[in-house]
Q: What sequence folds into this?
């Protein structure tokens, strides 16, 4: 079965339920729940040997770290603070105590790094290592920040340089709770998503969910050093890597134009950087990448490892 | 690595964290969290091809159903109402649309059956089907019901006949939210657990967590028809199957002696059955099974498929 079909199933399953406690169902970075009057976001993420890491080439600590941080990044992308994680693991019978200690340290230290706790889990034996992390969070501000609430004219920002994460960052990143907290506490972002499938894949999620188009300036996209290093090997350009590589786990968010200066001041005071890359446009404008050679229709390429 | 070592790791990881929002950490059926003043329980359970089901022999609907109900049973065992589930799946590339529709229907209908919603998930391709279900719940009563709060003299009850679940019930059970609701709403149970590893393995969890022993009357343990059918094949006795088979997903709970009659009245009114099988004793009494041939030390046998 192709990934396209998987996506169709996902969409099929995203049909909203007649459950008033589900404020936002599948289709955003997290679901948003109302439990006893408290707004809670929840996300679950599965990583497995071969697809997401090669345990022969990676420290187990980094695998545990990644499992937690992927979920933490989804929670940050909702403008929420991660609070608790549970982790279900399939562990190969040949895993050594040293390996498991590394794995567990990664899980626990990643959770602690974002101010959360690992509160439970499940273990099963199997041939391939996999970890499923489920994270809960609560809004830094009054409400979670969705994908669907950008408005035409909003400026588009990313929180850091993109591309080439396969060279190491995809296992060694920290969810951007710092900027999520700043944005949500100050009611600055009108929409937000994290870059897991690549900017070219993730920004259209905001556009479609909000019923908008956008214009992004290629020369304003911050390109990571790893994107350049990788480009030297692949023959692609660094900007192609910045656009299409996945697993940067930076945040992409939109800000009302009149708030852009306030964002600049507050982020500077906090010692945090954001990069303005374009603006949201009415849907009829389409999704456009402005390059030195002219405007191009936005192209989404799937991330492949 | 042996299961014993897995258990040691589990215990190692159960070291309580200095997080005041974690009211109960690993070691009970669910963790208990305080999020914004709301008490929430969370559990995660992983089932996989080979260990927990054989997809060649089982309807996909039943696999999805089981994934949700295992977590729902953990939530019921806390005296809580399941509210929301997320499910992460590893799906084999050869899974047909029909198979996936069955799987998804099982997930969604099981959640609906216990009054909850599936609010999100994650999908990955892999060689072996696995499903990790994470469930949230809230107390039917004021507080969740723990394993650690039984008292000497409390009567021990189970909610239904035990044994032989491998003949079908392990894929086709409904979490005992009915009795969990009755017990918790009426503040009847002093402790509770669900029978996932078998009565012989699970009742000692209550005893140890509560610092107690117990006396169970073998002839009061309700034996399922499947336990008898299975015994005819295995050469074991039906009571052995009722004691040691796992995955019955009935509840075992304790009730203060003076409340036993109230339980009888309320459960009868509700058309629900409970079976009194013994009583909790001080720790020095040990864990004892009374049989027609005399008292025996309680024996825990691991459930093996």
A:
């Amino acid at each position: 079965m192709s990934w396209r079909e998987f996506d169709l199933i996902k969409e099929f399953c995203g049909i909203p339920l007649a459950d008033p406690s589900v404020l936002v169902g599948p289709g955003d970075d997290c679901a948003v729940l109302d439990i006893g009057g408290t707004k809670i976001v929840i996300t679950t993420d599965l990583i497995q040997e071969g697809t997401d890491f090669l345990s022969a080439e990676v420290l187990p600590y980094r695998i545990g770290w990644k499992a937690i941080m992927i979920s933490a990044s989804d929670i940050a992308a909702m403008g929420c603070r991660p609070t608790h994680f549970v982790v279900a693991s399939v562990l190969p019978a040949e895993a050594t105590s040293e390996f498991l200690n590394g794995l567990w340290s990664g899980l626990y230290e990643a959770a602690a790094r974002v101010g959360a706790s690992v509160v439970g889990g499940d273990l099963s034996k199997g041939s391939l290592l996999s970890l499923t992390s489920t994270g809960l969070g609560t809004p830094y501000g009054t409400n979670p920040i969705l994908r669907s609430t950008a408005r035409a004219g909003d400026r588009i920002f990313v929180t850091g340089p993109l591309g080439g994460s396969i060279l190491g960052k995809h296992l060694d990143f920290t969810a951007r709770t710092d900027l999520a907290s700043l944005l949500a506490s100050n009611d600055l972002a009108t929409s937000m998503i994290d870059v897991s499938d690549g900017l070219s894949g993730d920004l259209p999620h905001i556009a479609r969910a909000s019923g908008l188009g956008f214009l992004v300036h290629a020369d304003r996209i911050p390109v990571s050093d790893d994107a350049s290093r990788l480009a030297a090997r692949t023959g692609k350009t660094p900007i192609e890597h910045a656009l299409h590589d996945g697993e940067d786990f930076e945040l992409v968010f939109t800000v009302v134009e009149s708030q852009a200066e306030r964002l600049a001041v507050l982020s500077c005071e906090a010692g945090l950087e954001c990069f303005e890359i374009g603006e949201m446009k009415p849907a009829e404008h389409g999704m456009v990448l402005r390059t030195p050679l002219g405007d191009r229709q936005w192209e989404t390429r799937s991330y492949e490892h």
Summary: The first strand of chain B starts at residue 22 and ends at 24.
